[in-house]
């Protein structure tokens, strides 16, 4: 059994060899869902590449990349570890992979949604007759900044090993430390402000669209203006759906684990089951 000796630990959660059938079923579900999701996201990746290089489609392309990387973790690690009811690799590998999957890639989604919301906010509020040619470059720069932060959070350079959060597989066992719990709190403190900011801007955008719809009902618009307005509404609806998808998943996980799950194993398996499906269909046009 591998142990950490480079820092303080709260405790070691010993393996609990129970709920083997449920664990194996969830592992099989994760493998199957990840295969379907990877195929879907790869298809959407090339679809977005074939479209006009608008900021929105650039952001959606990035979302398919982060989704695919997350699904690869489900396919090659989370799914097999549960399906075969065994550990894969060392605990250090477990912790490093979880830091990438559960923090860097996980946070990349909401950060991309923030950029999508800002993009829609500028388009709807200021209603430019022509999209500036430099807008795509600004989007790429902002997107690169979010990826750099996600990579930093995935590796946490300079932090000791005991600060990395492990996959909490009950049948394998895992370590927890004060430092790793602080890292979890950092993630929460980042996620909630992002969600509040996104929803506040979406509320403003929804009100603006209602006002525009009432105003333009009595005006004669050109076909180009109508197409632009319909596209704007379509993009807004897409961004709202994607923005609320994470909240709905978190809410459903919370409800199921609060009112249904009494064991830690049930909580973990329920979360894996629902989250693996989200990555399958997130980022669709």
From TrEMBL:
The chain crosses the membrane at residues 25-49, 69-88, 100-126, 138-155, 183-211. Residues 32-283 form the 7TM GPCR serpentine receptor class x (Srx) domain. Coiled coil: none annotated. InterPro entries: 7TM_GPCR_serpentine_rcpt_Srx. Keywords: Membrane, Transmembrane, Transmembrane helix. SUPFAM superfamilies: Family A G protein-coupled receptor-like. This is 7TM_GPCR_Srx domain-containing protein.
